[in-house]
Amino acid sequence: MKSSALSRIDLIVRALTYSQANAGIFRGEQMRILLCGGAGYIGCHTYATLSERGHQVAIADNFSNSSPEVLTRLRQLSGAPVPFHRLDLRDKPALEALFAQESFDAVIHFAALKAVGESCERPLDYFENNIGGTINLLQAMRGAGVRRLVFSSSATVYGDPEQVPVNEQARLQVTNPYGRTKLVVEELIGDLCRSDRDFRAANLRYFNPVGAHASGLIGEDPNGIPNNLMPYICQVAVGRREKLSVFGGDYPTVDGTGVRDYIHVVDLARAHADALDYLVRADRSLTVNLGTGRGISVLELANAFSSASGREIPYQIVERRPGDVAEVYADPGLAQQLLGWRAEYDVDAMCRDAWRWQSMNPQGYQGG
Ligand code: NAD
Ligand code: UFG
């Protein structure tokens, strides 16, 4: 075994310590919840949070952008087998069979393709997977009488906002096919809520999810060259990439580099549990931003990561990336008002946890 890899005993001790520390924090009604796309980055963290709260959770995923190793890690974390269905949302009969075979009180829908550049090259694949897959899911839910949905939306629905912080009343506009799928699905869900008075949905508009679970067992593991900033920085720190390319140094921002609202994935996972509680408790649908409300520049994030990891992050300022905007960060006030949710982790915690995950798993899940 490589010295950087985890030993089995280490994994088990961490998992036991973690589940003991989090036992008994369940707050709302216990539910049977299906996580579509639950083997992915945000889905697996949400699995961990929901299990800690005492919900019965199952995952459906086709592993198009995730690894079966996630299920092993979640089993280690939760100390119990992970109910799993290998399934593609484009396969409607398979979805209907799942809903006929199992009962669910709610669905959280993470399953989507998410690479902005790829969506410009293959828009039809994005429409088929993200919109077609969602329609199949909504139909299967309807057939089985499942009427609670949490949907992974994105700050991308705001495009290039006229002002920051962005609140939920801001004009919606999309700049690429991926963003269009998020906006269209939000609209489909809105129409469904209007047509079925008992259907309740939460559209959660994530800003920039980063970080990893404190155990270091699960985290973000992109295929190929990372598109996003934090996984790229992690791979530079661990020696898989030579240096960071900073896309643009002449934006009208604090230091000329792009500003975003990075949010710890564990805070984000908790918001899903809180949104489900809200659907039950308030018996209303909602659309909310999930961010910290704080903008961080590319160089600020790279510096914070360097301090957290003790590794230098060499970088070079290059041309702006087409389609990027200067500055986007959330007004998260509505989520606080409706859900009682606010982000707890700061940028140092995000970097520390991302680094723990990357240094314990230098090759991601592939390292075993
Ligand atoms: P991810 O790629 O890690 O997870 C998505 C999961 O869905 C993967 O496990 C993939 O295998 C699965 N999947 C995709 N298409 C499927 C299909 N047709 N059938 C079954 N499974 C399928 O992505 P993530 O970062 O965890 O994002 C989760 C959701 O949040 C996505 O909808 C994404 O668009 C949205 N989102 C992500 C970000 C971000 O920066 N990570 C930001 C805003 C919104
Ligand atoms: N950046 C670099 N170098 C890199 C990668 C990114 O300088 O190698 C910069 C970008 O130019 C931007 C910032 O880092 O200023 C953040 O870029 P990301 O790609 O990490 O994130 P984006 O805000 O561009 O987009 C992400 C998701 C979108 C989602 C959006 C809002 O990729 O799908 O957050 O949730 F819509």
Describe the structure.
The chain is α/β, with parallel strands linked by helices. It has one domain (3-367): 3-Layer(aba) Sandwich (Rossmann fold). Helices cover 41% and strands 15% of the residues. It has 12 helices and 13 strands. The strands form 4 sheets. A 7-stranded parallel beta sheet has the order 3-2-1-4-5-6-11, with helices on both faces. Strand 5 (148-154), helix 7 (177-195) and strand 6 (200-206) form a beta-alpha-beta unit. The chain starts with 7 loop residues before the first helix and ends in an 8-residue tail after the last helix. Residues 1-26 have low confidence and may be disordered. Bound molecules: nicotinamide-adenine-dinucleotide and uridine-5'-diphosphate-4-deoxy-4-fluoro-alpha-D-galactose. InterPro entries: NAD(P)-bd_dom, NAD(P)-bd_dom_sf, UDP_G4E.
Summarize the structure.
The chain is α/β, with parallel strands linked by helices and 368 residues long. The chain has helices at residues 8-21, 41-52, 69-78, 92-101, 116-121, 123-144, 177-195, 229-237, 265-281, 298-309, 333-339, 347-360, and strands spanning 32-36, 56-61, 84-86, 106-109, 148-154, 200-206, 208-210, 244-247, 259-260, 262-264, 286-290, 296-297, 315-318. Strand 1, helix 2 and strand 2 (56-61) form a beta-alpha-beta unit.
